Amino acid sequence: MTDPGTLDEVHRRYERERLKRLRPDGNDQYIAAEGVFSHYVDDPYMPRVNREPMVESPTDAVDVAFIGGGFAGLLTGAALRQAGVERVRLIDKGGDVGGTWYWNRYPGAMCDTASLIYLPLLEGTGDLLSEKYTRGPDILEHCRRIARHFDLYRDAVFSSEVTGLTWDDADRQWVIATNRGDRLRARHVCVGTGPLHKAKLPGIPGIEEFAGHSFHTSRWDYDYTGGDSDGSVMTGLANRRVGIIGTGATAVQCIPHLARSAGELFVFQRTPSSIDVRANRTLDYDELTPKMGPGWQRRWLENFTILQTGGIADEDLVMDGWTDISQRIRDRVLANPERGFGPEAMLAAYHESDDEKMEEIRARVDSIVDDPATADALKPWYRQLCKRPCFHDEYLDSFNRSNVHLIDTDGRGVEHITEGGVMVGDVEFELDCIIYASGFEVGTDFQRRWGFDPAGRGGQLLSDAWADGMSTLHGMHVHGFPNMFVIGPSQAANLISNIPHNLVEAGRTVASIIAEAERRRAETVEVTAEAERDWVALLESGGRTFGGDSSCTPGYYNNEGRPIEGADRRGMLGYPSGPVEYFRYIEAWRESGEFAGLVFD
Predict the structure, then answer these.
(1) Treating both helix axes as pointing N-terminal to C-terminal, what angle do 499-520 and 71-82 enclose, rounded to 10 degrees?
(2) Strand-pair category, 62-67 with 427-430
(3) Average pLDDT per run of 10 along the chain, which is 601 residues long?
(4) Which of 168, 397, 454, 497 has the fewest beta carbons under 10 Å from its own?
(5) What is the three-class DSSP state of 397?
């Protein structure tokens, strides 16, 4: 372990590197892919077919409409089917189900959480995975398998973006407007658009001037690059100078493929990612079968969540980078009982474990990258959980290729885009193609990310109801918005290392509530104002949030390095006792049959 004097210098460097990257504009440094930039989010995978608008009468209403066709919609739809709810409609702007995995078809796309816990409903849909970390095309196919298995294609509406959501109090239904002129009706509506779905672009001066080819990673242009999402060589790039802006989780996965295909590849880096070992491998079912059996996936989910959040389990079933981080912390706490087991002891153990881990990650860069200057530029100088941890076995090796050039901007980022390329300092890099690996909007107003602002009882807008910040029961129910369910991790478990686990539990909860409404013949289900207030007060008293560490280097995990305060902080709150206890709580809440806090009318 590094001696304390050296560690002090490491921590001082963390602060120096953070200060380089702080910007007064925060999230405003990015621009939405709208207006003159709207072509960046056109669907390249499914041609839009002209059709007549669907205008439904009150008698045509489906039981449940779900806005979003990703895992949230698929898991809730599956749970509703299992509960006997028949008319379920998925609505998605994409041309098929899949959500994130419909859009993210860039070469190398892969889940960075172990596939046996990341892919939901493996048990019962007849799927056996081949690798510990599943590739994007296989995840998309699994999404389609779920939709087929539970007959969710039947009433689905694709290539249609929701633009309005209005409660009709006379008929006690939601009216859903789309950009196709549709007016669809549903007794209940769920909003599950996902936390990372609205592509953003860097607000670099001159971005509209570039005369070459450009696209966002979530809309990969294989017509230009050649190749496919299975990883075939992109022959269209063989003689081209390609630049990629961004070195986050997406770039880490696609850069090795670009390195093999491009004539020259220029990687423009503002902040290096931490790259830990992935160690992907073929799954050995002779070894795994004794650990499976009926109900195996739920046990694995619970085991991962316990270990990843610092709990103790007899065995680590998943054994990945996430559980390694947490087990290091836990082992340090147990090894130093004289410190006690309170928050201060946990924080000390976290800092010590993180110091050890980040030293390993920086040493790994030196062991792989040949050029010392390039290796130094690729070393992350921040705590691992300041940014999304990355796990990859080929990314660092890419920088040993003679056609790959790391353009480190020392925290400043690209300064200007010209007609012919990219400016960093006084140097212009001429390019044929720019690929934006700039990610998705996080921390912007919900109505900007959703694309609509629901109007509830009496025409009240959700933006007005949430003027002082997000306010719900269980992150799901909003007073004044009957029969509406918001699906996501916020104000609930807030488990970010394995988002589908949040969605599995949310789907079961929605299905149990709607089935209960059917049993009671209730036309509406709504949270009381008191129950909503009490839930938010509970969350605020615990103070457990995602992000907001202003000592971190800037990124989407921490609001670009700016403190998260007031109304914005409410949307980051999670159950005070953590994800494990939240999942236990919500299961007991729904299985009690009382549905405390809700009124069935």
Answers:
(1) 40
(2) unpaired
(3) 76 94 82 88 92 96 98 98 96 97 96 93 81 95 96 97 97 98 98 84 94 97 97 97 96 98 98 95 88 91 90 87 83 84 82 93 98 98 92 97 98 96 96 95 78 96 96 98 96 93 97 97 98 97 72 78 76 93 97 97 94
(4) 168
(5) helix
Task: State the Cα angle at 107 between 102 and 109, rounded to 5°.
Answer: 55
Distance between first and last Cα of the chain: 62
* Residues 298, 292: Cα–Cα separation, whole Å: 10
The pair of three-digit structure tokens given for residue 422, joined into one six-digit string: 């990219």
Q: Among 42, 166, 29, 149, which residue's Cα sits nearest to residue 93?
A: 42
Report yes or no on whether pTM surpasses 0.90.
Answer: yes
The helix/strand count (H/E) of the chain reads as 18, 20
CA distance 168 to 140: 35
Residues in the chain: 601
Contact between 261 and 237 (Cβ < 8 Å): yes
Which residue's entry shows tokens 């008191």?
530
- Residue whose structure tokens are 């959500």: 99
Query: What sign does the CA torsion over 302, 305, 311, 314 have?
Result: positive
Q: What is the pLDDT of residue 391?
A: 94
Provide the pLDDT for residue 346.
Answer: 80
- Sequence-ordered alpha helix ranges (H) in 184-316: 222-225, 249-261, 285-288, 296-308
Nearest-angstrom CA–CA distance, 104 and 253: 11
Looking at residue 197, its pLDDT comes to 76
For residue 4, what is the enclosing H or E element? helix 4-21
pLDDT reported for residue 8: 92
Residue 4 pLDDT: 62
DSSP three-state, residue 187: strand
**Alpha-carbon dihedral 589, 323, 100, 569, rounded to 10 degrees:** 60
| Residue corresponding to tokens 């539970």 | 150
d(CA 240, CA 225): 10
The whole-number pLDDT of residue 587 equals: 98
- Give 585's contacts (C-beta < 8 A, 6+ positions apart): 575, 577
Q: What is the pairing mode between strands 213-216 and 162-168?
A: unpaired
Residue 80 CA to residue 86 CA, distance in Å, equals: 8
Sign of CA dihedral 572, 575, 578, 581: negative
Give the pLDDT of residue 286: 86
Angstrom distance (rounded) from CA 43 to CA 94 = 7
Q: Is residue 152 within 8 Å of 74, Cβ to Cβ?
A: yes
Question: Structure tokens of 297?
Answer: 């996936």
DSSP structure class, residue 130 = S
CA 213 to chain centre: 27
Residue 509: how many other CB atoms lie within 10 Å: 22
- Strands 200-202 and 213-216, by their bridges, are unpaired
Which residue from 258, 221, 4 is spatially nearest to 108, judged by alpha carbons? 258
